[in-house]
Amino acid sequence: MRMLVILSLAACNNLEAGVSLPAKDTGDTGEGGGGDTDTHDTVDTDDDQDDDGFSAADGDCDDSEPKVSPAREEDDDDGLDNDCDGRVDEDFKGVDVAYVTSGGEGHIYQIDHIGRLEADVQTGDCIPIFLDAAPDGGWYVNDNLAAVSHVATDGTCTQLADFSEADWPPYAVTVTPDGTLYVVLADRLSTVASDGTVTDLASWDPETEFYPIGLASDPLTGTVGLFDYFGGFATYSPASGFAYVVKPDFSNPALYGVISGAHGDDGGWYVPATSAAGVGIFRLEGTEWVLQDEWSDEDWSPFMMAVDADDPDRPEFYVSATAGAYQVIWRVIHGSNAAEHLWVSDGSDFGYFYGVVSRFY
Ligand SMILES: [Ca+2]
Ligand SMILES: [Ca+2]
Ligand SMILES: [Ca+2]
Ligand SMILES: [Ca+2]
User: Fold this and answer.
1) What is the pLDDT of residue 14?
2) How much distance in Å is there from the Cα of 40 to the middle of ligand 1?
């Protein structure tokens, strides 16, 4: 299979290690967080109709239902989007990870939240490198850095779009809440329709401007995030178009080795990258990548990441990696600065773990 030199990580850089918690401020009028002192005003002066501490402008997505606000945790059985992340009754169920054996056979492993291998979906000659959940319960995958394909839950793989003749290879895929499938190539962002029609949305020079590999999307707004190998970051939405948030500086990169990114349900954008200690998780704060956790690297490669940030003060990161005959999903609980194994293989095959996504249903 066609392998990527860029998937092996660059040497350590000299990032300053300043750990900070994700911002808690919800933008509520007056006080930060959900601790509004005027929650029970007899006269509503802040447009908070259900007195849960958040007005519609503060992000209350149902201002007539106090069990719904950005500060609530999701109740997975009440039919409401309690935490206003755009998903109803979602619950973190584990991760789906792309696995390619040493013999070149594709698999998608479904590993549950306590580290059990729930399903091994064999995709045969279809080689999943990046993946995201499709609305029908299957997946959209980057097939061998050459095509975008659909994989059904029984492993049946159907090619949608062939990029083998493109100037630059396709990388990550993401699916937005309306079902739109996006793919990022090194030089452009495109959508792929169910009939295979490819529509280019934005382009750039990957040698001088921007080199995105990772892609993720916000399940609430549908905004797509593009993650550049050197710490650049851009967003795309149909309403606002393409915009840089962090323009990468190739001569003095903010980060090294970013080959994936994820959107947390705390609203944050996260990436794994090379850090002073080895591997770090960084969160975008304004236009800066702020180190969240880091741990020593023992020649594991490559790493891609998913996030479960239902508790925004204590998000959990799930990182896929491979060392020799071992494929692993690390779990890093924010604040621990340590990686534990959610799942590790038995060491019987020199295959690779690649893309990983959180599963919420
Ligand atoms: Ca409210
Ligand atoms: Ca509410
Ligand atoms: Ca929700
Ligand atoms: Ca709910």
Assistant:
1) 29
2) 11
Q: By the 8 A CB rule, do 8 and 301 touch? A: yes
- Res. 20: pLDDT tops 50: no
Ranges of beta strands (E only) in 188-300 are 188-192, 198-203, 212-217, 224-228, 233-237, 241-246, 262-263, 269-274, 278-285, 288-296
What integer is the mean pLDDT of 252-260? 94
Query: What is the 208 CA–ligand 3 centroid distance (Å)?
Result: 39
CA-CA distance, 305 to 144, in Å (whole number)? 19
Backbone angles phi, psi at 254, to 5 degrees: -70, -35
Burial status of residue 250 (CB atoms within 10 A of its CB: 0-12, 13-18, 19 or more) = middle
Domains located in the chain, CATH noted: 46-91 (no CATH), 92-359 (2.130.10.10)
Measured in angstroms, how far is the CA atom of residue 219 from the centroid of ligand 1? Answer: 21
Query: 250 C-alpha vs ligand 3 centroid, how far in Å?
Result: 38
Between these two residues, 201 and 311, which has the higher pLDDT value? Answer: 201
Q: 112: Cβ–Cβ under 8 A, 6 or more apart, which residues?
A: 93, 94, 118
pLDDT > 70: percent of the chain: 86
Q: 138-167 in b/e burial notation, b at 16+ Cβ within 10 A?
A: bbbbbbbbbbbbbbeeebebeebbebeebe
Q: What is the rounded average pLDDT for all residues in the chain?
A: 87
For the chain, report the end-to-end CA distance as a whole number of angstroms.
32
Report how far residue 207's alpha carbon sits from residue 274's, in angstroms, rounded to the nearest whole number. Answer: 21
- The two tokens of residue 94 are 């584990």
Token code pair at residue 25 = 């401020």
Please give the distance, rounded to the nearest whole angstrom, from the Cα atom of residue 39 to the centre of ligand 2: 12
Please give the structure tokens belonging to residue 155: 């492993």
Under 8 Å CB-to-CB from 251, ≥6 apart: which residues? none
Mode of pairing for the β-strands spanning 188-192 and 198-203: antiparallel
The closest ligand to the CA of 85 turns out to be 3
